[in-house]
Amino acid sequence: MTHYIVVSEEVGEVIPILDYGQGPIEYFRCVAVVDAPNPSKAKAMALKTKEFNAWLEECSGDNPFVGLKVEKGLCPHGICQCEICCGNDEPTCPECLIEFNKDFNEL
Ligand SMILES: [Zn+2]
Ligand SMILES: [Zn+2]
Fold first, then answer.
1. How many domains does the chain have?
2. What is the per-residue pLDDT for 20?
């Protein structure tokens, strides 16, 4: 199994502002990391996550598979850097970690 990062197209959501009834529209993408045997299975699994509720609403009736992008979470050194493998923390790849620490020290 491989970790795939599935990303939707932009979803526009109106931010409700009570005084005026309607606020600005905020655009975002639905993102989910799934452990799947192939990219099409990865899309199907991502659509079942709560992260993709907004995308399913946006599609309402249209094929929700259209417009989804699937990527492997591999870094240039071939090590998976997805959320499952390294959380939102440091990279798990030793070479990326060196880069990461270098950037960090430059702050
Ligand atoms: Zn991973
Ligand atoms: Zn790396």
1. 1
2. 66
